[in-house]
Specification:
Blueprint (H helix, E strand, L loop, with lengths): L2 H50 L2 E5 L4 E5 L10 E5 L4 E4 L2 E3 L8 E11 L2 E12 L5 E3 L12 E4 L11 E4 L3 E2 L5 E4 L4 E7 L5 E10 L6 E4 L4 E5 L9 E5 L3 E3 L1 E4 L8 E10 L5 E11 L6 E8 L6 H11 L4 E4 L5 H9 L3 E4 L6 H4 L3 H19 L5 E2 L17 H11 L3 E2 L4 E2 L9 H9 L5 E8 L3 H5 L1 H10 L3 E2 L16
Parallel strand pairs: 2-7, 9-14, 16-21, 22-23, 22-28, 22-29, 23-24, 25-26, 27-28
Antiparallel strand pairs: 1-3, 3-4, 5-6, 6-7, 8-10, 10-11, 12-13, 13-14, 15-17, 17-18, 19-20, 20-21
Length: about 500
């Protein structure tokens, strides 16, 4: 076969292959056209079914939406009908379900409609949300222009207290959630966020400076009077710095309680910047015989449920008092009174007026009973006594006339000394609050010696003791327990 024939054969083979590929492509194209026609027909059929099938149809509704807290709930303006897409009969729509616009949260409501014997219901979700940021007030700074707002910033980056307030319409007062930050570029950022994540931010110019010294607070009284020979433990002082917070306090000075005189305790504090401050306490040590202001606090009818608390207060201030005890209460309280340096004296065992004032014999039987109790507990035999109602009482006349006149003489013959009072707290009648007791006592104090009557079984009376001591120590009074040599403040006998 020559070359010309070979070329003709190759050309025929190529043409045959091209024709075969063309036929295959045409077949695939026809197949896709058939598929598309089928899908279009199905879609047209579905749309037609949707449009032409009678059913309930909702238009213009939002099935999920957010509404603002405390705002107005707007009812949907949508419509519902029954019918086809081409012809649909409009129906009355009902909405059920509650939405509390004053409570954040998600609520479900139902839209429903009726057509003849058919009923339809659709559920919608409504969320009550808070998108309003809190209000942040910077006191006087808000009245200034942004560039004029300036605050001091400590060298350590701390921002001293700025007068500010934050209020959110849902979360209320958010002042304690305000954040402050110094950005290092001369600006202080003040921000607050509410529970919903809404955030308010303000900025002010920050000036780095610390010119304030620590503020020293003297614990207890800055001026007090104590009796010679008493124990004294200084209460110290604390200091707070606007930049450094709590700082150490150095104490200088000593008190010689055995040497009458006026002593000064000095307290010094220094912050990290070097600012220093000082404060002082004046302590006056006096001899009882030299003082013209002596107070004997006395407490009747105990021990009771408030006696332990009273002893704690007395220990705090180093004050000694006198307890006229009865047969009531815990032995341990009488032991504590004695052990802590107070005078334990006698009232009567029963404190029963009808019994103790019916005869001299009954009175001393009752008195010896409480004397024996105190001796058993403490090993000490008291000789100071106080008559129930005082030596001037008249109630005793109901049980035996003239008995007080007999008793005031007889107690002395039997080795006792009786004590009355010249300042009544009124806690046995008339006073019913700590303020009244306090005022009744301090209003009667002046120069002189005062025996104060209180009752440690009265809680409100015990509540007044700390303030009475503070007043006395600040005004030059010496508090002493009673002894046989003390001023006994006798009353006139009326029976």
């Amino acid at each position: 076969m020559n070359k010309s024939k070979l070329a003709d054969e190759e050309t025929k083979l190529v043409e045959a292959s091209d024709n075969e590929n063309t036929n295959k492509g045409q077949k695939r194209l026809k197949a896709w056209v058939i598929v598309l026609i089928g899908l279009s027909a199905a879609l047209i059929s579905a749309v037609g079914a949707w449009a032409l099938t009678p059913k309930f149809r909702f238009f213009g509704f939002s099935w999920e939406k957010n509404v603002e807290y405390e705002g107005e709930l707007v009812i949907e303006n949508g419509e519902v009908c029954f019918g086809t897409f081409l012809s649909c009969e409009r129906l009355d729509m009902e909405m059920s379900g509650e939405v509390d616009m004053e409570e954040l949260g998600e609520y479900k409501v139902q839209y429903s409609a009726h057509f003849k014997n058919r009923h339809v219901e659709r559920e919608a979700t409504i969320r009550v949300v808070d998108t309003t940021p809190p209000e942040l007030e910077l006191a006087d700074l808000d009245e200034l222009g942004e560039s004029e707002r300036k605050v001091l910033v400590c060298p350590n980056g701390k921002i001293p207290q700025i007068k500010m307030k934050a209020e959110d319409r849902h979360d209320g007062d958010l002042t304690d959630r305000i954040e402050t930050m110094f950005d290092g570029n001369g600006m202080v950022i003040i921000a607050v966020s509410d529970e919903s994540g809404n955030r308010t931010i303000k900025t002010v110019v920050g000036l780095v400076e610390d010119a304030l010294a620590p503020e020293i607070n003297v614990n207890g009284l800055e001026a007090k009077t104590i009796v010679r020979g008493s124990e004294y433990e200084d209460e110290g002082a604390t200091a707070v710095d606007n930049c450094d917070g709590d700082v150490d306090v150095a104490t200088e000075g000593t008190i010689n309680t055995n040497e009458p005189g006026e002593y000064i305790m000095k307290y010094k504090a220094k912050d990290e910047t070097g600012n220093e401050s000082e404060k002082y306490r004046t302590v006056k040590v006096v001899s009882p015989e030299d003082s013209n202001r002596i107070v004997y606090l006395t407490f009747d009818d105990g021990p009771g449920e408030h006696t332990g608390r009273l002893l704690d207060i007395l220990a705090k201030y180093g004050v000694k008092v006198t307890f006229f005890v009865t047969g009531r209460g815990d032995d341990a309280l009488i032991k504590r009174e004695y052990d802590e340096g107070h005078t334990v004296a006698l009232h009567t065992n029963s404190h029963d007026y009808a019994y103790v004032y019916s005869s001299v014999g009954n009175y001393f039987a009752d008195l010896y009973a409480i004397r024996d109790r105190v001796k058993r507990i403490t090993g000490y035999e008291p000789t100071l006594i106080r008559f129930p109602g005082g030596s001037s009482n008249t109630i005793s006349a109901q049980y035996q006339r003239g008995i007080m006149s007999e008793l005031v003489g007889e107690v002395g013959r039997r080795g006792f000394q009786y004590v009355d009072w010249n300042v009544s707290s009124g806690d046995a009648g008339g006073a019913s609050t700590a303020d009244q007791v306090y005022n009744n006592v301090v209003s009667r104090l002046g120069d002189g010696r005062y025996v104060v009557l209180q009752h440690d079984i009265k809680g409100f009376s015990v509540d007044a003791v700390e303030r009475i001591i503070q007043y006395g120590q600040a005004n030059g009074y010496v508090f002493l327990p009673m002894t046989a040599e003390s001023f006994l403040a006798h009353h006139g006998v009326n029976n």
